[in-house]
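User: Here's a chain of 515 residues. Predict its fold as tokens.
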Amino acid sequence: MALQLVASFSSCACSFTKPPPTIHIQFRLPKNGKISSPHGCMVCPKDAKKIIVRRSANYQPSIWDNDFVQSLKSEFRAYTKRINKLKEEVRVMLNQAVNPLDQLQLIDTLQRLGLAYHFEDEIKRILMSIYTHNSCNNTKMREDLCTTALEFRLLRQHGYKITQEEGEIILQYARDFTTTSLKKYVEHSKDQNLSMIMSHALDLPLHWRMQRLETRWFIDVYERKQGMNPLLLELAKLDFNMWWRNTGLGQKLGFARDRIMESFLWSIGMIFEPQFSYCRRMIAKLFALLTTIDDIYDVYGTMDELELFTDAVQSFQTICFLSFYNSINEIAFDVLWEQGFNAIPYLKKAIKYIDNAWISITGPMNQVHAYFLVKSPISNDALKRLEEHSNLIRFSSMIFRLADDLGTSSDKLKRGDVPKSIQCYMHETGASEAKARDHIRFLISETWKKMNKERVADSPFSETFIGVAINLARMAHCMYQYGDGHGIQDRETKDRVLSLLVQPISFMQLSSLYL
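Assistant: Prediction complete.
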């Protein structure tokens, strides 16, 4: 669609009184009433033979064709009765657990197996009880370091303001010490399974990982764990296999199929719960549209075309919104789309990279769409924060931008793109590329700390939307962990798509229990 917009304009300085018929909307025209383009005009001999040499990103055809996508279907509907029975048994387990350590370990296991969303009320009740008991008695569980750390992580993860007594800096010391110790253990350990788990943790922290992909990995790990609960394992496998049919993938998505699975992977990374199927489909459409527009700016378009295209899209934005929603808040969306298209690096001259780049990565645009799609409370305070870009949105988008730079900047420079954060730091400090990359990783870590603090601060946003913002950052780590996982489909991204959306988890058939 975006390419058609560019191609539809006349290429000479002819006057227009209405837009070309393929557009069907009224564009803003320059003050002289004329539009020009470097394509050349068919009625103007002077422009007819003009040849434009365009860059290429060498993107390969999509590996996910339409027939394949439409062929995906779930065979697990017959297991609904068994799943509901197992859920009730787990609910009993939660209610019967009275020892705080047992409660915390069960909650942690449910979260990592991807089952916690079924038991939100029970988990909230347990954590509130533990938090209230500790606050009233000014005591904490002191059994061991592992227990203390688990309690601290789960309470903070669920929004409780838990201090570290000696200040937040101690957490960094603890992380550095743990990282060093685990690396030494992995080097000398003969326990391959434990070493694999530690290497996984060292590769990317649990808190930074895409939840649903981590669930798929942990189910296999939990199955090999000594003392694992067979009931929890069975429910996790059945629930995961049943879950993906509710992602919305099997429904007709109604947009270009190029990079379709990557776009849908982004939407699952942002919000995976089954009740948000419509939200995922709309977010996937948005990602597909933004990807097309991004390629026009980064690769395909010339400067003259991009200036023209930007003006066209700014007039076109309302139509874009109406294709996603029946009703929208025009103020919030107008601000974000206006800033998004004015933040394109090609069209910005004198601006610091990072102040521009966290907007041009489209993080704020994605989040504001999600805000309305998950039916968040539409309060004046929340809308004002959306328009002003709250810290939560800014930090999430910053991580998105920096993770993208780490994964894609080298390839983008080869095709003539503008310098990214890594190259800017190298230019400003004289650092090597390796040092610059380390610095960007440090910035990501520091931004995560700020976002974690923002998560427990008083916020006008719902817990669901806060989760969406955090999950956008997690998804950025997932997509760019090993390079450009969005533009290059047949590497790690392919395996992740297959494991999440195509290949069910195998397990022993339990005969009539599933009928």
